[in-house]
Amino acid sequence: MRKPNQLFPVLRCFHGTAANFTVFHPSERGSFGSGIYAAVDEAAAKEYAAGAFLLTLDMRLQNPYRYSASFEHSVDLDSAAIGLVQTLFNEEQAGALIQAAIATDGYFGEEIQRALKARGYDGIIATYEDGSQEALCFSPEQVTILDRQTITHELSASFNP
């Protein structure tokens, strides 16, 4: 486990995973692009941890991009990141990124991270319409694993990420 860096504001969050690891590696693709994802709500993270692990984290975000995530848009892609992509990129670039996501796995790559880093951001805090939040940082150095629990329950049939 990493030694915490106390220079930045800390957000307590949670990460459910089937993988057993001690150091995070940013995902190459994700709902909001590449990075390290965590839920601010423990119950939401537990849904990803069925039969595996729930990690309690401190995520240091000095300057996160705060985004109001919404699935309300006219694009034929079930993604809360469409508005973010349309804000960060010009119409042609946004269209190309969205079409690439539609043609592949529905996720975005490192383009979002690069665009936000160029503007001085070190992560994203996405707040959904129901008030739930998802945090994303760009570097493993921003995350300290505080605790690891083994979760043995099955996924809830009512949970639909």
Automatic annotation (TrEMBL):
Pfam families found in the cross-reference section: ART-PolyVal
Top-rank lineage group of the source organism: Bacteria
InterPro entries: ART-PolyVal_dom
Domain (ART-PolyVal-like) ranges: 11-143
Name of the featured protein: ART-PolyVal-like domain-containing protein
